[in-house]
Write a structure and sequence with these properties.
Largest sheet: 4 strands, antiparallel
Helix content: under 10%
Shape: globular
CATH superfamily: Rieske [2Fe-2S] iron-sulphur domain
Structural class: mainly beta
Strand content: 35-45%
Number of domains: 1
Strand order of the largest sheet: 1-2-3-7
Length: 92
């Protein structure tokens, strides 16, 4: 699932009841990872097939390529994602 929160594009994944959250933007060409195909703990970008581990953000084929993973807490049926402070956000 793809969502936007406070200007952050996030990709949410449920792997056997555990929620993982990644940056929604594939570093290859900007594809929406939250719209990709999930097999086990590996998501495949829908645009060009780059794959990432939703637990670590690493690309299995080349761990030098990573996407940001965000800490998650599920409390009272709410998914809470720990985002950086607005002052820490990269300027684009």
């Amino acid at each position: 699932m793809s969502v936007e929160v406070d200007g952050y594009g996030l990709a949410l994944f449920n792997v056997e009841g555990t929620i993982y959250v990644l940056d929604n933007t594939c570093p290859h060409a900007g594809g929406p990872l939250g719209e990709g195909t999930l097999q086990g703990e590996i998501v495949e970008c829908p645009w060009h097939g780059w794959r990432f581990n939703v637990r670590t953000g690493e690309r299995p084929e080349n761990p030098d390529f990573k996407v940001t993973c965000y800490p998650v807490e599920v409390r009272d049926n709410e998914i809470r994602v720990m985002l950086p402070l607005a002052s820490d956000k990269k300027q684009t």
